[in-house]
Specification:
six-stranded mixed sheet, 6 strands, single chain, 3 helices, elongated, alpha/beta
Length: about 180
């Protein structure tokens, strides 16, 4: 470690490469059941969950931000909002037939159990698809999101239980 005469360390004195990311947490109230589970989670039940996303991309030299947190909520909040106050089921769950037609918000996962692991992966792909659509549609109120991607989603179904999904090889095009 190199210290200046004043005892302070200056970042310019180090040859380091940094990667900056931002993290945003969303709350979700949802119900689910695990069709193929033999324990208590086979019963329909609810959770107060939290979704933590990590986004990487270039830091805008003018704003000093990857993205404004309110823009992250605006662009990505709709995807996470699909789960909020919804019943999340495996598409093969016969409970869907009983619940449909009752003016309920139901999210069906295509032959997947609605576990924290599967929801984290489902969200990771849906969130990045949303970013791609935002970039493809041109600059909007949230500005240019080129080169940004969600690299990690942690889906916590309780304060003590969570699953994470990480995108390996997320390509950020800094053109």
């Amino acid at each position: 470690m190199i210290l200046g005469e004043d005892g302070k360390v200056s970042i310019e004195e180090f040859e380091v490469e940094t990667k900056t990311s931002l993290t945003k947490v969303f709350a979700v109230e949802y119900a689910h059941r695990l069709l193929h589970h033999l324990g208590q989670c086979h019963n329909l039940h609810g959770h107060t969950g939290h979704v933590r996303i990590v986004m990487k991309g270039p830091v805008d030299p003018k704003t000093g931000m990857i993205a404004d947190f309110s823009d992250v909520k605006m662009v990505l909040g709709g995807v996470i909002g699909l789960l909020d106050h919804a019943v999340v089921l495996n598409s093969q769950d016969p409970l869907f037939d009983s619940l449909s037609g009752h003016d309920l918000s139901i999210v069906l996962l295509d032959d997947l159990e609605p576990t924290a692991e599967n929801l984290a992966e489902w969200l990771l792909y849906r969130l990045n698809h949303e970013i791609t659509g935002w970039v493809d549609s041109g600059e909007g109120a949230a500005g240019d999101w080129s080169g940004r991607c969600v690299t990690d989603v942690v889906f916590a179904e309780t304060a003590n239980n969570a699953a994470a999904c990480t995108m390996v090889g997320c390509v950020i095009n800094d053109e």
